[in-house]
Design goal:
Elements: E1 2-7, H1 10-20, E2 27-32, H2 35-40, E3 42-43, H3 51-60, E4 65-68, H4 71-75, H5 78-84, E5 88-90, H6 98-101, H7 103-113, E6 120-123, H8 126-136, E7 140-144, E8 153-156, H9 159-170, E9 181-185, E10 190-199, E11 203-211, E12 214-216, E13 220-223, E14 228-231, H10 238-258, E15 264-274, E16 277-284, H11 291-299, H12 302-311, E17 326-334, E18 346-349, E19 359-363, E20 366-369, E21 372-375, E22 379-387, H13 390-401, E23 404-405, E24 409-411
Parallel strand pairs: 1-2, 1-4, 2-3, 4-5
Antiparallel strand pairs: 6-9, 7-8, 7-9, 10-11, 10-15, 11-14, 12-13, 14-17, 15-16, 17-22, 17-24, 18-21, 18-23, 19-22, 20-21
Helix pairs in contact: 1-11, 7-10, 8-9
The protein binds adenosine monophosphate (AMP) and glycine.
Length: about 425
């Protein structure tokens, strides 16, 4: 079949890498892609927030299946546009993607199904928001309701940080996305990412991972979109997974169906686990970036079969074939990220580096100019490796990092520390 992947991150590079290995895949296009993806398949530079452009590409190139990577096109209704034209599409509808595009919506689902999550208040008024902070004390979490590229959350340990975040967001730091804000109880515990496929009714868990949100070693510095990840996540043991499926995930899927907006696609639940009890931090309507990279490393080509099973109502009879191993990814980011950073610096990856099922460099923000690799984003490369143990995988990944010369980049040297 002819497949189009929409997106340009490390997530889409890893999806393309895995799917390309499946014999069912004839032609694979990625739009817009990046320099790494263009080394393995054809990239088409179009505006993926223009649904009609994507549809045109699908028609022109006889695409049989579209896989939507990032949240922007999902929230923009790309899935709805394609499905209306009878295009087989893996990606939640606009209404279902509200689970990611509105944190207040997710809270309303949690309240309908009684799922455990942080207590919160919803505000448009600065005075009322500040009064809520005074009443509830610290630490407290301030969140933009809508999409904010992973930057719309402030964990405030003091009142002035909380008040600054309230001022900032309600003054329009994230445009319409922060016209309304949530102020939330701080949940203590260990965070993990849980991924399930849903056909609107049934679910199939396809993996666990742990991300490193903070910019610097020792979990210090500002929150980022994620500086590295590993899979599996030991904290998500069978018991915790069972509670999560029973009390959070399946009820969410049931509630979405009941509301007439069935959730079809990949659901990524961000969880906070304490004393074996999972609480929902957030839902995402997509694979994690960079969690996808470690999942794809372990799932390989079968991800295409899993996606097709999801879209043909065959999840109940499908089994995930797991290699009993571990994968890790180390993000190399532009100095300054998640704040201001400079694009356009030169990256050189040593010749002779072998890419195979055990080690890959997945690209995110990269372009090629005159055959030179250039940085073009905050998170730029994902050095990914697998091994029989997390320790072996980690050592392999950091050996590859040493073979990459990029003075304008930085990375964390402690990815995986919690599990090790
Ligand atoms: P979100 O975009 O909601 O996932 O928030 C980004 C990150 O902020 C999460 O991955 C957590 O590390 C942290 N966070 C968000 N909400 C809370 C909360 N209520 N308690 C503790 N940490 C949180
Ligand atoms: N790595 C966190 C996310 O993709 O939201």
């Amino acid at each position: 079949m002819n497949i189009l992947i929409v997106g340009s991150g490390g997530r889409e590079h890893s999806l393309a890498w895995a799917i390309k290995q499946n014999p069912k895949c004839d032609t694979l296009l990625v739009a817009p892609g990046n320099a790494g993806i263009s080394e393995i398949t054809e990239c088409i530079d179009i505006d993926i927030l223009d649904n009609s452009k994507v549809l045109q590409l699908v028609k022109n190139r006889s695409i049989d299946l579209v896989i939507i990577g990032p949240e922007g096109p999902l929230a923009n209704g790309l899935s709805d546009t394609l499905i209306k034209e009878n295009v087989l599409t893996f990606g939640a509808s606009k209404a279902a993607a509200e689970l990611e595009s509105s944190k207040a919506f997710t809270k309303s689902i949690c309240s309908s199904i009684n799922a455990s999550t942080a207590k919160y208040g919803l505000f448009r008024d600065k005075k009322k928001a500040k009064q809520y902070v005074r009443n509830h004390g610290l630490t407290i979490v301030i969140k933009a309701d809508g999409l904010a590229a992973g930057k719309g959350v402030v964990v405030a340990m003091d009142q002035s940080t909380a008040f600054d975040a309230i001022e900032d967001m309600l003054d329009g730091a994230f445009g319409a996305s922060s016209a309304e804000i949530l102020i939330e109880e701080f949940m203590d515990g260990e965070e993990a990412s849980f991924f399930v496929l849903s056909d609107g009714k049934n679910i199939l868990p396809i993996g666990t991972a742990q991300d490193h949100k903070r910019a610097f070693d020792g979990d210090l510095g500002p929150n980022t979109g994620g500086m590295g990840a590993y899979s599996p996540a030991p904290i998500l043991n069978t018991k915790v997974v069972d509670i999560t499926l029973r009390t959070i995930i399946q009820p969410t899927i049931d509630e979405m169906a009941k509301r007439g907006t069935p959730y079809i696609g990949i659901l990524y639940a961000g969880l906070m686990i304490k004393n074996g009890v999972p609480r929902l931090v957030e839902d995402n309507a997509r694979f994690g970036e960079p969690e996808c990279q470690v999942l794809m490393m372990r799932l390989g080509a079968q991800i295409l079969d899993l996606i097709l099973a999801c879209l043909t109502n065959n999840l109940l009879t499908t089994k995930v074939q797991w290699a009993e191993d571990h994968a890790i990814t180390v993000v190399m980011a532009s100095k300054g990220y998640p704040g201001a950073y400079r694009n356009g610096s030169t990256i050189s990856i040593e010749d002779g580096l072998v890419y195979d099922s055990q080690q890959m460099v997945f690209h995110a923000g990269t372009v090629k100019r005159d055959n030179i690799l250039i940085s073009n984003g905050g998170r730029v490369l994902n050095i990914t490796a697998r091994g029989e143990s997390l320790l072996l995988a980690r050592d392999k990944a950091y050996q590859i990092v040493k073979r990459i010369s990029w003075p304008e980049g930085y990375y964390r040297s402690d990815i995986g520390w919690k599990a090790l």
